[in-house]
C-alpha cells in the first residue's frame, strides 16, 4: 500500500463521519437528561455611595433549548424565578426589578401561554449602604432560584449562586452655602 | 481497494439504523437506561403515604400492571399527561391496570391534593420521597413513568412527555405480562382515587 492509498478518501471520510455520528447517538441514549444550568455574568466592581441606593445589573443566561419561569408565572403551581440576597450588616437590599417574562406557548401545552425567561435576561438590584458602613470593599452573596424545562420535560428547582463586590465610599461632604455675613456692627 | 456498491449500501443502512435507535432511545428509553436497571429487573419496592393518609406499598399491586408516574405540580408536561392517565385508568382498569402517581414536590400535601382534584385524577397519588426517586435512577427530570409487569418487573420506561398512543402501547405491553401464580391473588385489589 502506498502512502497515497493510506489517505482517507472522501467516501471513507463520510462513512467515518456517519459512524461517529451513530456512536454519538448511541452515547446520547445512555446519558440522563440534563437540567439547564443558568449562569451569571461576572459583575464589575460596583461603587456605591453611603446613604444612597445604587442599582446593579445582574446578567443571567439560560442555555439554548430551555426556559425557566419568569418572576410572575401564570399559574399558582409554577415556581417563580426569585433572587434572594444575604447582604452584610448595614447594607440594605433595595428594590429588585425583574424583567417581564416572554409569553410563549410550548409544544407540551400549545393552547396555554407561559411567562418565561429564555436566553439572556437581566435583574436589576438596588444596594443601599447605610451611613454607618465603614468605607471599603464588601462581597454581596445570594442565590437565584429557578425551575427550568425544555419542550418535553421539567427539572427540579435549582439555585445558582450570585455574588458581586461593592466598594462603599463616603457620601460627598455636604455642600453648605456660606451663610450670609451679618453686617458687623461697630459700636 | 474497491468496495461493491452493495457493501456500501449495507454499511450505510446499518449506520442509519444505529442513528435512529440512538436518537430514539435518547428520548424514550427502556429499563436499561439507568445503570442499575437490567432488562426485566424487579421494580424497587417502596411504601409511601397517599393523599388520603394511607400507606401504599408497591408490592401490594403484584398481579396488576402498574404505570408508576413520577410528576410534580410545577411540571407543565406532567399536567398534559394526567388526563390521558385518567382515560387509560378508566379504559384498562378491568384488565388489571393500576396507575399510581408519585408527587416529587415540595408543595404541601393540601396543594398536591388540590392540584390532583383540579385535574380530575382517578388514581392514587403518593407523596414522593427522594430516596424512592433514587431507587428509580434519580428521576432527574419529570414526567418519568415506569411500566411494571404483573409480576413486578420493569418492562418499559418513558422519560419526558410522549404521545398518548405511545403511552398506551406501553400500558398494553405491561398488561400483556402474566402474573406468577403466587402473585395473582393480589390482582383483585381495587384502588380508589385520591
Largest interface: pair, residues per side: A-B, 35 and 40 residues
**Major β-sheet annotation of chain A:** 4 strands, antiparallel
- How many β-strand stretches of chain B? 7
Poorly predicted spans of chain A = 1-8
| Rg value of chain B | 19 Å
Question: What is the rounded distance between the termini of chain B?
Answer: 69 Å
Overall spatial form of chain A: elongated
Structural class of chain A: mainly beta
- Proportion in β-strands of chain A: 35-45%
Short summary:
The complex is a heterodimer of chains A (187) and B (194). Chain A is mainly beta and 187 residues long.
Task: Write a structural description.
The complex is a heterodimer of chains A (187) and B (194). Chain A is mainly beta. Chain A contains two helices and twelve strands. Chain A has helices spanning 3-6, 10-30; strands spanning 39-40, 46-49, 54-61, 67-69, 82-86, 91-97, 102-106, 109-117, 120-129, 136-146, 148-149, 158-169. Chain A starts with a helix and ends in an 18-residue tail after the last strand. Mean pLDDT of chain A is 85; it is low at 1-8. Chain B has 194 residues and is α/β, with parallel strands linked by helices. Chain B is 35% helix and 18% strand. Chain B is built from five helices and seven strands, in the order αβββαβαβαββα. In chain B, the strands form two sheets. Chain B has a five-stranded mixed sheet with strand order 5-4-3-6-7. Chain B has a two-stranded antiparallel sheet with strand order 1-2. The radius of gyration of chain B is 19 Å and the shape is globular. Chain A binds chain B through residues 11, 15, 18-19, 21-35, 77-79, 106, 108-109, 114, 147, 149-150, 152-157, and chain B through 8, 11-12, 15, 18-19, 21-23, 25-27, 29, 33-34, 72-80, 104, 106-107, 111, 115, 137-138, 140-144, 159-162.
Amino acid at each position: 500500500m502506498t502512502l497515497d492509498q493510506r489517505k482517507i478518501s472522501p467516501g471513507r471520510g463520510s462513512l467515518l463521519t456517519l459512524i461517529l455520528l451513530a456512536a454519538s447517538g448511541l452515547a446520547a441514549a445512555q446519558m440522563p437528561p440534563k437540567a439547564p444550568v443558568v449562569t451569571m455574568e461576572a459583575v464589575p466592581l460596583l461603587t456605591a455611595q453611603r446613604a444612597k441606593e445604587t442599582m446593579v445589573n445582574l446578567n443571567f443566561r439560560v442555555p439554548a433549548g430551555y426556559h425557566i419561569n419568569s418572576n410572575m408565572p401564570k399559574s399558582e403551581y409554577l415556581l417563580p424565578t426569585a433572587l434572594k440576597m444575604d447582604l452584610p450588616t448595614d447594607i440594605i437590599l433595595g428594590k429588585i426589578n425583574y424583567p417581564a417574562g416572554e409569553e410563549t406557548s410550548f409544544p407540551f401545552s400549545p393552547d396555554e401561554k407561559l411567562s418565561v425567561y429564555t436566553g439572556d435576561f437581566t435583574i436589576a438590584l438596588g444596594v443601599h449602604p447605610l451611613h454607618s458602613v465603614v468605607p471599603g470593599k464588601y462581597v454581596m452573596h445570594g442565590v437565584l432560584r429557578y425551575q427550568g424545562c425544555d419542550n418535553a420535560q421539567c427539572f427540579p428547582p435549582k439555585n445558582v449562586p450570585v455574588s458581586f463586590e461593592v466598594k462603599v465610599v463616603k457620601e460627598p461632604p455636604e455642600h453648605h452655602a456660606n451663610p450670609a455675613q451679618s453686617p458687623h456692627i461697630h459700636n | 481497494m474497491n468496495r461493491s456498491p452493495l457493501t456500501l449500501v449495507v454499511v450505510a443502512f446499518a449506520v442509519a439504523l444505529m442513528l435512529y435507535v440512538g436518537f430514539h432511545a435518547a428520548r424514550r428509553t427502556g429499563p436499561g437506561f439507568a445503570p442499575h436497571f437490567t432488562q426485566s429487573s424487579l421494580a424497587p419496592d417502596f411504601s409511601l403515604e397517599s393523599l388520603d393518609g394511607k400507606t401504599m406499598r408497591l408490592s401490594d399491586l403484584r398481579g396488576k400492571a402498574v404505570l408508576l408516574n413520577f410528576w410534580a405540580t410545577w411540571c407543565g408536561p406532567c399536567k398534559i399527561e394526567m388526563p390521558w392517565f385518567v382515560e387509560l385508568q378508566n379504559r384498562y382498569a378491568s384488565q388489571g391496570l393500576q396507575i399510581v402517581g408519585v408527587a416529587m414536590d415540595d408543595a404541601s400535601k393540601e396543594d398536591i391534593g388540590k392540584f390532583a382534584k383540579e385535574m380530575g385524577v382517578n388514581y392514587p397519588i403518593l407523596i414522593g420521597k427522594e430516596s424512592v426517586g433514587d431507587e428509580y435512577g434519580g428521576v432527574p427530570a419529570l414526567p418519568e413513568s415506569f411500566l411494571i409487569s404483573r409480576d413486578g418487573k420493569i418492562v418499559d420506561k418513558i422519560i419526558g412527555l410522549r404521545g398518548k398512543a405511545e403511552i398506551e402501547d406501553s400500558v398494553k405491553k405491561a398488561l400483556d405480562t402474566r402474573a406468577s401464580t403466587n402473585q395473582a391473588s393480589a390482582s383483585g385489589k381495587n384502588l380508589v382515587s385520591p
